[in-house]
Amino acid sequence: MTGSVVCVARDDTHRFSKVPQAAVTLLAGLGVQGDAHAGKTVRHRSRVRADPTQPNLRQVHLIHAELLEDIAARGFVLRPAELGENITTRGVDLLALPRGARLSLGPQAVVQVTGLRNPCAQIEAFQSGLLKELVGQDEAGHSVFRAGIMAVVLQSGEVRPGDRVVVTLPPEPHERLVRV
């Protein structure tokens, strides 16, 4: 399974959207260099308040461009990085990946998928009605989160738009993604 990087972004301040960049550097065990969410322990403000010693399973946020296009078809205007993702991809259904999948991003960087992004009220504040597009229910009544996936950095490296994304699946049985 392969795809490509569409956009890379970071922001050194805790804001909802991130700033697109020509390149970002992923740092093993930390996240995106210069991003407010980089660190060994949690950096998301709500998680820091709950327990600042928790490991940071949300070092890198990824969304596939096809999801943004699907939402745009419903009347929303979304550009890469506006939902706070660090990396926007094309050609890989990120939400269908199992926990533990590894993504090689460009020539060196490798991240490991930890789970789904937990959609928050900031999404609704960004664009009215958008949260409903990113949180739904399946046939069994279980919540379905479509706000992207989270990962940790296993191997450092620079990532740029146009870089290849190569997926390596973990051994079976695969664990479906849950929010982290």
UniProtKB/TrEMBL annotation:
InterPro entries: MoCF_Sase_C (IPR005302), MOSC_domain (IPR052716), Pyrv_Knase-like_insert_dom_sf (IPR011037). It comes from the Bacteria. This is MOSC domain-containing protein. GO terms for molecular function: catalytic activity; molybdenum ion binding; pyridoxal phosphate binding. Residues 19-168 form the MOSC domain. PANTHER family: METAL-SULFUR CLUSTER BIOSYNTHESIS PROTEINS YUAD-RELATED, MOSC DOMAIN-CONTAINING PROTEIN. Transmembrane segments: none annotated.
